Amino acid sequence: xxxxxxxxxxxxxxxxxxxxxxxxxxxxxxxxxxxxxxxxxxxxxxxxxxxxxxxxxxxxxxxxxxxxxxxxxxxxxxxxxxxxxxxxxxxxxxxxxxxxxxxxxxxxxxxxxxxxxxxxxxxxxxxxxxxxxxxxxxxxxxxxxxxxxxxxxxxxxxxxxxxxxxxxxxxxxxxxxxxxxxxxxxxxxxxxxxxxxxxxxxxxxxxxxxxxxxxxxxxxxxxxxxxxxxxxxxxxxxxxxxxxxxxxxxxxxxxxxxxxxxxxxxxxxxxxx
Length: 273
Known about the structure:
single chain, 273 residues, Beta-Lactamase, six-stranded antiparallel beta sheet
């Protein structure tokens, strides 16, 4: 007997496009999201937690904790069929919660229904697209979440969604910023080449460059060699760095004290925002 597809959200076309724009379907980055799976598992007591994204046809597991196997790897995909419970989480902004899958009125007839607890939370971005899910199973038996746990996992899901939005925006801005930087560099001196641009960016990052390359930038007034042979960016070079947005920025660190999960997640969200 053929298995049908899971129902799709009303905004499926736009939703799937937004997922592709994250760049994570073909190039998953589990290190960014592992902490959220770990937090959800620890807060709820469920045996495992998985964060997945969904393109037009597949569920793509990005990060997982609790049941890693040799077969599983970031980017593992499953078809979004009617037997894929997590696919149904995309249909609502509220979580799908089941104390015992095997006794749930809807899912008890699932071919792989077990006496497991289940909790699936949609990951909804700023444009109200459910890009993915944070889903948990308790393979040791039935399990329910209290209201406090539900609210904490909602915060985790919101943090994941915000990170996806930031990543998408950064991805879209990278090419535009690079083109603008090249334009600023060429406007400063039309005779400078793309190799000179690469050299200047490398110097701005503190990377050592060949003297022959530095000499061209020094002649253009962007840097100078001191008596000890070290390279120094000139005032004109520093001003060009600012115009090209190459200044170094400090990244703040989140300081977490105590073991209160609510405080910890609130601090994470403040830092992201």
